[in-house]
Amino acid sequence: MSRSVKLAAVALLCGVALAVANSRIEAQQIAAQAAAKTSSKLGLGRPALPDEIKAWDTAVRPDGKGLPPGKGTVKQGDVLFQAQCASCHGEFGEGAGRWPVLAGGAGTLKADRPDKTIGSFWPDLSTAFDYIKRAMPYGNARSLSDDDVYALTAYLLSMNDIVKDENFELNDRNFTSIKMPNAAAFYDDDRETAEKQFWKKDPCMKDCRSAPKVTGRAISVDVTPDSKSGPKVD
Amino acid sequence: MSDKSSADILNRRKFLGAVGLAGAGAALGAKPAMAEGVKPDPLITEIQDWNRYLGDGVDKKPYGVPSKFEKNVIRRDVSWLTASPESSVNFTPLHELDGIITPSGLCFERHHSGVADINPAEHRLMINGLVDKPLVFTMDDIKRMPRMNKVYFLECAANSGMEWRGAQLNGCQFTHGMVHNVMYTGVSLKTLLDEAGLKPNAKWLMLEGADAAAMNRSLPIEKALNDCMLAFAMNGEALRPEQGYPLRAVIPGWEGNLWVKWIRRIEVGDQPWQTREETSKYTDLLADGRSRKHTFVMDAKSVVTNPSPQAPLKHKGRNVLSGLAWSGRGTVKRVDVSMDGGRNWQTARIDGPVFDKSLVRFYVDFDWNGQELMIQSRAMDSTGYVQPTKDELRKVRGVNSIYHNNGIQTWLVRSGGETENVEIG
Fold it and tell me: Which residues form the Moybdenum cofactor oxidoreductase dimerisation domain (chain B) (predicted)?
């Protein structure tokens, strides 16, 4: 910048050099603009302190990354669950009213009405720990200790018959050894191959099908607001 | 159904020709026809209050609201859908809207622990994990970064999810109203990540909200660096609280759940976290008992918003069919409309801006003689994807995948103009 100013001043003094100086100023300006563009740092924000990261970063991954030190047994989890969770999820995780069912449903995923619970559906145990710790109990999140969360996770394993011993202790060392029954049944989005027939050059425009007949009517189901029952969406 | 083909109904030239003839006839004998039995309209012949007395002054409404005559234009919810209104959804009144921009106050809401009430001065954004320097930003910091403005649709992965097994809810507000389309102002996610500096093994991000659900989702780094934003404004003003005030993620074309609201933390990692919202929820159970996960993109979709069950046809003769189309894979290239349940199709007229991963508005101007109609629309996008029928989708996916139902909607218009959500076979 200051060099450009200097050059401009020189140019004013030496009229004959004006054209040359101008082109040099332009070149410098272009270079300065390019430098501004390539510099990726704006210098905004400040370093996050270790205590701050610890306070917010509670995420737990399937490989156990993020698990805090701690432990809890099925028995301890049962006591906690009845006090903190059963009013919505039922004594055995069966779900009160329309609240989520947490246990049961094994082998129902191909059924007409699948029962998707932690035991029957969830692929990773880490998800239960992560989710309980960040978001439960509903309406009083982040109120459980790490040991509480281990104990509740152990109780959920027990309710889902994944562990059988009520004295079983779940802790940060044995956590990743627990395998969930449905772990292998998930695969990445494959629509672009499995549904490639939906990419079409010239969709039919004329006489594309036989005369249609009405096969279902929403007014027969009659669940548009004010009705008390109907399909469920998560 | 009448034998009259959809092409005939939609043939605007023919229709205009007919009007032209009728118009000429009316002109010849106009006077007696007009005079007989038609009384002068008192709304014209008598002076109305609003034509005599003063209206409100400019000091009356520092922040304006719609006319009281528009009180039906509201979000609605379906109480039986969920156990609690704080982890629930409501629906955009698509049948009452036009153009492509959703008014901020009508944008559908989906919360998992209610609306977080955050003073922007107390909001913090943290970036940690596989970065050179973990950082904390204030809203002031973020507003000092280079800005961008983009119009995108946000569609809930569960939009139309209640319709997998058949016609359930009677109105496009309920069948298709988990979508909105606004202009976002914010900063590119890349700008923020560059400040912290990504480590070479950075492959995934985890986005986390500041609400009581602390909603978290894993996002592949390629998408994050491509077109994602953190937005602080929608439609020219600050985000609404229910849309993530003061800061939300904008993940263009991808399922709404990823658009983490009240975003407070981005963790950089080398693999996905398999959070609750990408394992228990937002995975798509297929008929063989296996499930797709990370089905991020929202496929091409459309719906006729008028006529529809909440907006029946009221007039014979000239009518405007209006609808919305969108695709998470790019731009909408074409929308076809059928009046006879998919036997015959005609290309609709798209009017207004066509943006990448945004709603577009389409119209068909048509003449209706009171015959029964089975109205459908079919979107095509810039990748050549053609919106499938529900039956085509069910053939691949069964009926228990909950999410990503972009099947073609059918409205049955009965002879009196009443319109119903139906399935046809």
Answer: 294-409
